[in-house]
């Protein structure tokens, strides 16, 4: 994996967006290697005591390896693959990979009115180290963020920045899951949604899923509708349809390939469900999207 970092110039068009991306990157640090890379701007380097203070928020995700984190409000602690630490502006912090393991990290720096509100309302600097329960989702969001950060197109900064609240939403959901009783209705529904997302290529056996989650199907269905506003099957179909637009748009799959990838029984059923949900057939939607992107 090649290291990549980008520091964004001020963009007047992004000033009112609420989420302004300032920097982002990903790097692999080998065991015994120097850290951090001296190529970063001076304001981002650590001082002689290994500390630094930034004037921005950052999310730092450890994808592999292990190391140490410490901040003004968090005592020195070990971190490992799946750890996320949140950097708050104006608070000193320091972190580094363990010499014996190195690590692979991804990060994004940001600020903005909406960013400040969300960070202070839903997260605390004294609990800056989190352990994600869905690391592959976070990896995927960083993949997409860094992809757009690398593009040279109008609106690049806003598109890349739109991934930041998604990352934070997953982190917040992880913390909510940890604080809920494992057998509460909310926890059951959360685990059911995760199971559905993991197997979008199949039609879930909902009765078997309820049994796997340790509850009756009637309770499962009632809890699901109360928590989401939708019956389980309708919810599953909706997330498949939302995913289908991504496959058609970004993966350039055909309509039949998309239907097959998402476990629909036929192209006819998929096309009918798509039109019911979005007002256009998949073919019409692809043509319309192609014209808008020209």
From TrEMBL:
<protein>
    <submittedName>
        <fullName>AraC family transcriptional regulator</fullName>
    </submittedName>
</protein>
<feature type="domain" description="HTH araC/xylS-type">
    <location>
        <begin position="190"/>
        <end position="288"/>
    </location>
</feature>
<dbReference type="Pfam" id="PF02311">
    <property type="entry name" value="AraC_binding"/>
</dbReference>
<dbReference type="InterPro" id="IPR018060">
    <property type="entry name" value="HTH_AraC"/>
</dbReference>
<dbReference type="InterPro" id="IPR037923">
    <property type="entry name" value="HTH-like"/>
</dbReference>
<dbReference type="InterPro" id="IPR009057">
    <property type="entry name" value="Homeodomain-like_sf"/>
</dbReference>
<keyword id="KW-0238">DNA-binding</keyword>
<keyword id="KW-0804">Transcription</keyword>
<dbReference type="InterPro" id="IPR018062">
    <property type="entry name" value="HTH_AraC-typ_CS"/>
</dbReference>
<keyword id="KW-0805">Transcription regulation</keyword>
<dbReference type="InterPro" id="IPR003313">
    <property type="entry name" value="AraC-bd"/>
</dbReference>
<dbReference type="Pfam" id="PF12833">
    <property type="entry name" value="HTH_18"/>
</dbReference>
<dbReference type="InterPro" id="IPR020449">
    <property type="entry name" value="Tscrpt_reg_AraC-type_HTH"/>
</dbReference>
């Amino acid at each position: 994996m090649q290291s990549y970092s980008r520091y964004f110039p001020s963009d007047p068009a992004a000033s009112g967006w609420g989420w302004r991306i300032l920097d982002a990157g990903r790097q692999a640090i080998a065991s015994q290697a120097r850290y951090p890379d001296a190529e970063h701007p001076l304001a981002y380097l650590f001082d002689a005591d290994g500390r630094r203070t930034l004037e921005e928020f950052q999310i730092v995700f450890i994808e592999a390896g292990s190391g140490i984190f410490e901040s003004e409000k968090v005592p020195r602690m070990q971190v490992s693959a799946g750890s996320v630490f949140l950097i708050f502006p104006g608070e000193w912090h320091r972190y580094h990979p363990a010499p014996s393991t190195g690590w692979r990290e991804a990060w994004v720096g940001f600020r903005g009115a909406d960013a400040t509100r969300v960070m202070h309302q839903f997260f605390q600097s004294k609990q800056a180290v989190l352990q994600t329960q869905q690391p592959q989702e976070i990896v995927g969001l960083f993949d997409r963020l860094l992809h757009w950060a690398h593009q040279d197109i109008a609106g690049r900064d806003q598109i890349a920045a739109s991934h930041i609240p998604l990352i934070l939403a997953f982190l917040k959901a992880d913390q909510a899951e940890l604080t809920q009783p494992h057998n509460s209705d909310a926890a059951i529904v959360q685990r059911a949604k995760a199971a559905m997302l993991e197997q979008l290529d199949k039609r879930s056996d909902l009765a078997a899923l309820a049994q796997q989650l340790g509850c009756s199907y009637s309770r499962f269905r009632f809890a699901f509708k109360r928590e989401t506003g939708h019956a389980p099957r309708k919810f599953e179909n909706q997330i498949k349809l939302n995913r289908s637009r991504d496959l058609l748009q970004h993966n350039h799959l055909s309509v039949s390939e998309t239907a097959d990838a998402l476990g629909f029984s036929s192209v006819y059923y998929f096309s009918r469900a798509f039109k019911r949900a979005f007002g256009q057939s998949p073919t019409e939607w692809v043509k319309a999207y192609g014209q808008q992107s020209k």
